[in-house]
Amino acid sequence: MTQTGKPETRFSPYAGxxxxxxxxxxxxxWEYCKAHELRLQKCSGCGELRYYPRPACPECHSMxxxxxxxxxxxTVYSYTIAHHPVLPFFADKxxxxxxxxxxxxxxxYMVGRLMDVDPGDxxxxxxxxVMFEDVAEDITLPQWRRADD
Length: 149
Ligand SMILES: [Zn+2]
Hints:
binds zinc ion; 5% helix; mainly beta; three-stranded antiparallel beta sheet; five-stranded mixed β-barrel; 149 residues; 37% strand
């Protein structure tokens, strides 16, 4: 963050991958990812899990929550195959499958790359497991791979 509070664009040291900009609302999420733990906010008022991280529950508006470790298991709810690299970092990675993952814990969805999955093999409902990709000293991205079972 700059002194004005406006985030600066940061890039990974390798090949210009743009990095997330941790903020007051989500820095704990990124810290847990760095530790290779997937933790989401669980509302203390109604018990709902939520993602992306934010200060208030969209269901009951409570500002109280805890960071709950989740299984990291889910299924492909939707996906796309990116064919045209927007950034040089992705030039040798296309065609690139990107999934909307529905977590096993309920109506919680995350977007991420489907790693080590041939684009032609992606299927709706395919079981996946989170994996963590260390992309910078302080940033680790949650990505997804095919589940073993
Ligand atoms: Zn709530």
